Amino acid sequence: MDIIYPHHSMAEVLTENYHLLPVINRFGIQLGFVDATVEEICQKYEINTDFFLAIINTFHNENYFPEQKMQEFNPLKIVDYLRKTHDYYLTVIIPGMENILEKLIESCSLNCEKMKPIRKFYQKYKEELLAHIQDEEQNVFPYIIDLVRNKKISDGYSIHTFEKEHTNVDMKLNDLTMLFLKYLDPVYDNTLCNEFLITLLRFEKDLKNHARIEDYVLVPAVESIEKKLRK
Ligand SMILES: [Fe+2]
Ligand SMILES: [Fe+2]
């Protein structure tokens, strides 16, 4: 299944790609689908099927980019979804990852020196990520909400003034994974180490897709409103 369509069975979609589980939770969707299709589940939860498909397909297939539809989505809905994702990172992923990292450090038996730079690198990365999320919550999203609700546009300002590049946040997480894979001494609990790496890799994927939704779904939708207001 390269692209997910409305007629696909929801249970099959999730069997094919379990990374979509936290994504559907952000829409408030819970398990127990029986044989319902994606469209039927969207109707049950009163979610716009096209919007839902645009989000899950962006996660599911890196080449997916339904340009035509992007501009039709209400940016407030996209912002709502992105805020739920930020909340999930802040309350579930980051504390969970830290918990495993601390246990992993505690499990170190012999030379634990190499763990110190990893903890430091992680802390630095976390600060940057939190700053990025805070910037979106405090500057980018309020700009969009004001634009949509009050049709307010100022000369010299556009979505590009507010939305920062994602390259840095993406790359640092990959550096952290590489630190583990390439330079960690084998003096740690293997199960904890694997658990940390799997969490890290899953988060990396989720974060990349989150950034793609911001760049390819949110920004074009906002640009289209800016264009109309400038006419
Ligand atoms: Fe974000
Ligand atoms: Fe972002």
The major sheet is characterized as: none
User: Which ranges are low-confidence, i.e. pLDDT below 50, for 5 or more consecutive residues?
Assistant: none
> Taking all residues together, what is the mean pLDDT?
88
Number of helices: 10
Provide the β-strand percentage band. under 5%
- Note the quaternary state here: single chain
The helix fraction, in percent, is: over 70%
Cofactors, ions, other ligands: fe (ii) ion
Compute the number of structural domains: 2
Q: What's the alpha carbon Rg, rounded to whole Å?
A: 20 Å
**How many DSSP E strands?**
0
**SSE string, helices as H and strands as E:** HHHHHHHHHH
Q: Give the end-to-end Cα distance, rounded to a whole number of Å.
A: 41 Å
Which term fits the overall shape? globular
Structural class, by secondary structure, is mainly alpha
Keyphrases for this structure?
231 residues, mainly alpha, 2 domains, binds fe (ii) ion
Description:
- With about 230 residues, the chain is mostly helical.
- It has two domains: about 10-65, no CATH class; about 75-230.
- Helix content is about 70%, strand content about 0%.
- It is built from ten helices and no strands.
- Helix 4 (about 50-60) packs across helix 10 (about 190-230) and helix 6 (about 75-105) runs antiparallel to helix 10.
- The longest helix has about 40 residues, at about 190-230.
- The protein is globular, with a radius of gyration of 20 Å.
- The model has no long low-confidence stretch (mean pLDDT about 90).
- The structure holds fe (ii) ion (2 copies).
- The site of one fe (ii) ion (FE2) has 5 residues, from helix 7 and helix 10.
- One fe (ii) ion binds near residues 132, 136, 166 and 214.
